[in-house]
Amino acid sequence: MILKTVIASVAEAQKANLTILESGLARTALDKLPDITSHALIVSGVRRCGKSTLLHQLLREKHPDAFYLNFEDTRLYDFEPSDFLRLDSLVTETGQKVLFFDEIQIVDRWETYVRQKLDEGCKVVITGSNASLLSRELGTKLTGRQITKELFPFSYSEFCAYRNALPSPDATRDYMATGGFPEYVKSGLEEFMRQLFEDILIRDIAVRYGVRDVRTLQRLALYLVSNIGRLITGNRLKTMFEAGSTSTIMDYLSYFEYTYLFHFVPKFSYSLRKQLVNPRKVYAIDTGVVNANSGSFTDDFGSVFKNPVFLHLRRNYKDIYYFSEKSECDFVISEKGTVRQVVQVCYDLNPDNIDRELKGLFEAVAHFGLKEGMLVTFNQTDEFERDGMKALIVPAHQYLAD
């Protein structure tokens, strides 16, 4: 339980801090945020990817007088569902009809209060570091009354804009090494990335979901961050880490996805059951996380090179698969049940791998009845044709900048 005066002083201090903070790089997501009152606008994304900065930019440009409260403030650790009554009294006194709530999902039954404010005609904007904000925890009280947007660390284009650099092989190499977390791009301190990794594991997963075997959770995360682009299965991971059950491992993998730390790409199949039972490929939220927390970054650059391509696709599409029949293709992108494009990724095409890479791409193109496919390399441009199909070879700095 928290006194109303305490909530008021925290809100006042937080709003004052927002006004003195630098507005930062204007995120491309800012122009894509809808201006609505009938639905809550939910901005979800990994911790420290810039959600608060995005809120700041939205406040400054469109709603400078809005009521703002960040629930992750240490002074609000004792906030309980009953305290929403005190918060609401404070909001009513201010007369504000535009409400910005940061990390509100850490308080139980927050959906009820948000629904109440929507019914009262308020504009509500919510940010949170948990993908379950998009669906799992909304429940019947808010379902259908939300518009959801995801925010990721800097894209390649945003990274280049921040560094005042043109897209180029050198910029691609820098982006691969640094990633897109704004604070790390600014400071270059690896301690930030290691602490971020630990905060997600402990604060966002272990504490939130009551994980007791924190050591296994950490070991599993380190294994995944060292095996980007590789196939994993719950059974194999269970044996490797001597976990109590496969379901425990699968729970951990779900927590990683909920917090955006890792993404798991299934094998394409028209059968949902086969998608669930086949191995999945693992990708991280950012190559900076991989570089700072894994020893395999320089040893397996080819696999990690696929990660920014995946993230480029993930910013725009949710239904992403890998293709594997006789040969393999890295990414299959589906929209509304129809495959729209296939993308192969190879750091460096050479005489030893070109046949394999093109075979996988052309097989996927033919399988889905497409006319062409894309093969992303580090810095090569070319075009190949086979049986009336095209393979467009494009350098990463061109592909990621689109």
From TrEMBL:
Q: Which residues form the AAA domain?
A: 39-160
Q: Which Gene3D superfamilies match?
A: P-loop containing nucleotide triphosphate hydrolases
Q: Which InterPro entries match?
A: AAA_14 (IPR041682), DUF4143 (IPR025420), P-loop_NTPase (IPR027417)
The record's section on SUPFAM superfamilies has: P-loop containing nucleoside triphosphate hydrolases (SSF52540)
Please state every residue range assigned to the domain named DUF4143. 203-347
Protein name according to UniProt: AAA+ ATPase domain-containing protein
